[in-house]
Amino acid sequence: MNRHSPSQDSGTPGHGALLDGVELVILDFDGVIADSEVISLASLREALAAFGVDLSVEDVRRAFLGRSLASIQAYVERHGPHGKKRDFADTWQTTLFDRFRAELKPIPHVLTFLKHLSERGIPYCIASSGTFERLGVALSAMKLSEQFTFIFSAEQVARGKPEPDLFLFAAKQIGVRPDACLVIEDSPFGVRAAKAANMRCVGFVGGSHLHENMGEHSELLRQQGADAVVASLAALSARHAS
User: What pTM value is reported for the model?
Assistant: First the structure.
């Protein structure tokens, strides 16, 4: 099988081949490094309801997974009847950060994967729709702050995912051509952004928020253009058979 063709499985040995020729790995944060989406989506749904936007958990996941805080704030301002809609972002973030500090855990095998990249001489960075404040709180809560030299946020670009701006910005800052980058993403918006940036992309379905619909979400990521889908970061550390 051509290593750039969409995989038909999720996390079987051999996906380490996807790193061959890669000069930069760009990692989404929520749902790829931090197992944060269950906390994030649940607290977001509660905050939306408090501001007059009543959506199901599935509707919240479908509409906002991978989206920036600014885009969610804009949605509330368009659709929410609450008189203090501009307070939404601060209200949600305060609750979310408290839960992060108390509950947040990293995605399994993150440290092993980062060590594997370092051993192969492949630099890596975070490129997230989250704010720098959110990233800082989350990394500190998981004791991972020292693991990342390069961190990029949608706050730095005009257009967030699914536009390619953030990934292109990250690659330019580090000095790597887009076609030499590999993006790891759990959201359809993120996969679309990666492919629009002319980057290879691995869809990731190992977060706890996807345990009940892993197959459906895997197919959705493939439909958006993911070159492979894995259920564990350990799969990307495994060397393929020669």
Answer: 0.84
